[in-house]
Write a structure and sequence with these properties.
By secondary structure, this protein is α/β, with parallel strands linked by helices. It has helices at 3-10, 27-30, 48-60, 74-92, 105-108, 126-135, 150-163, 177-187, 224-228, 262-265, 267-278, 348-352, 368-378, 386-405, 422-426; strands at 12-15, 19-22, 39-44, 64-70, 100-102, 116-119, 139-143, 167-170, 194-201, 287-294, 302-310, 316-321, 325-330, 333-338, 342-345, 409-412, 417-418. Residues 40-165 form the Gfo/Idh/MocA-like oxidoreductase N-terminal domain.
Length: 439
């Protein structure tokens, strides 16, 4: 037998009738440090988020190995390759040159030596790239927010179910101690039945508005048309995309053609905690209404919003831009988590009392990358599979639609459609340019 790949060829299971998915080899076959115990990962989208938190965490994990990087910006792709090869060179004490490079992720997905992908693309590319990866049988860790509209998110979830892959919403918040502690308190009933939940995101993306910009020459290292991908054609200007040969917060995060803005960017983190604590991770509200204000110019996402949701059991959720926190209020008290490390409650006993015999632990000891990689090895769900992430980001997108419509909306979380409002229903889907991807 010739190592891991030969063994995997003989240890496969058929998924969805036509695709052959590799089965991870148990440690007993080759030993604890055998190549078979490393999940091979490709990193697609090599911007700020990938090269700062994501690649370093994947490199440091004992459960995976980064084997390829991909970006339509060759400067970013080359920098990521050097980052990976440099890390393994230092570990191995040799001049390691094993990290492959791709400018087209579709070619990368044809590489059968790759088990999983870490997707850190602009938001408008999240669903198309994830669907293509699922169709190729790759396990997926997907940056938040996972979609820019509810219909696209539902299509992604359907494809994931069809191909039976492991998925993870790449948000670290469930692994932060005070966040899982707060959820543990709430889910064990220490504050009684939940009545109200307050969620707020920081005004991190807000700032001076940016007027329309002059068209600029496309940098030689950037395949701009591929960067646009499913989005419609638009003239290139640096503030629409990302900084040339540099990192930092990119302009596309404030352009509604590519991103929902702060409501989804941080909302994906904090509304996810709200859903977790409320035990509503696979459902949604029945009523939504809100108000907000949009920037004008090239950067045109919301700079302010106040949204009110009501669930079928009467729980009310209030969502705005103020600071990063989640507060649960129950009939017997309250608990609040402020990012990054503040935890407070209506009485110290709510936090400090040890878990009782009948209480459930929500303790998380893995970071998000290790949770994803071990979920693949152990053939289990990750802590935050994309079905949960879809319901979380739907909360944000429902609020956005309610603000645009300007009236209270009624929502059916089973059919995922509005009741009696055709105008709102049309906003559930964003038409795409099909040059690079088709649903």
């Amino acid at each position: 037998m010739n190592g891991r790949r030969d063994f995997l060829k003989k240890s496969t299971t058929i998924v969805a009738g036509s695709f052959i998915m590799p089965t991870i080899v148990p440690a007993s076959v080759f030993g604890k440090n055998a190549p078979s115990n490393k999940i091979t990962v490709a990193c697609i989208g090599c911007g700020r988020q990938m090269v700062k938190p994501n690649i370093p965490q994947l490199l440091e994990s004992p459960h995976g190995q980064v084997v390829a990087v991909c970006d339509v910006d060759t400067w970013r792709m080359d920098k990521a390759q050097k980052q990976v090869d440099g890390y393994y060179s230092a570990i191995k004490g040799t001049d390691y040159k094993g990290c492959k490079t791709y400018t087209d992720y579709r070619k990368l997905l044809l590489d059968k030596s790759i088990d999983a992908v870490m997707l850190s693309l602009p938001d408008h590319w999240h669903v198309p790239a994830a669907i293509d990866a699922a169709r190729a049988g790759k396990h997926i860790s997907l940056e938040k927010p996972i979609s820019t509209c509810i219909k696209h998110g539902r299509k992604l979830v359907e494809v994931i179910k069809k191909y039976g892959i492991v998925t993870r919403n790449d948000s670290e918040f469930r692994t932060l101690t005070n966040f899982w502690k707060a959820v543990e308190i709430v889910r064990n009933g220490r504050i009684g039945k939940i009545r109200k939940i307050y969620v707020s995101v920081p005004p991190e993306l807000n700032g001076d508005p940016l007027p329309p910009q002059q068209t600029m020459p496309v940098p030689a290292e950037l395949d701009y048309d591929f960067w646009l991908g499913p989005a419609w054609e638009a003239p290139y200007t640096e503030k629409r995309v990302h900084a040339v040969k540099a990192y930092g917060r990119p302009g596309w995060m404030r352009v509604s053609d590519y991103c929902n803005g702060m409501i989804s960017n941080w909302g994906a983190h904090l509304m996810g905690i709200m859903q977790w604590g409320n035990n509503s991770e696979y459902t949604g509200p029945v009523e939504i209404e809100g108000s907000g204000n949009f920037d004008k110019g090239l950067w045109n996402t919301m700079n302010r919003f106040d949204i009110h949701y009501r669930f079928a059991d009467g729980v009310e959720v209030f969502f705005n831009i103020e600071r990063a926190y989640v507060r649960f209020e129950g009939v017997n008290g309250w608990v609040e988590i402020g990012y990054p490390d503040k935890l407070s409650a209506s009485s110290p006993e709510i936090i400090n009392t040890p878990l009782g015999r009948d209480e459930k632990s929500f303790k998380v000891e893995l970071n998000d990358k290790d949770d994803f990689l071990l979920a693949i090895k152990e053939n289990r769900k990750s802590l935050e599979p994309l079905e949960m992430a879809h319901r979380t980001i739907s909360m944000c997108q429902l609020g956005l639609i309610a603000i645009k419509i300007g009236s209270k909306l009624n929502w059916d979380s089973v059919s995922e459609d509005f009741i009696g409002d055709n105008a709102a229903s049309t906003m559930l889907n964003i038409p795409i340019r099909e040059k690079y991807f088709k649903f």
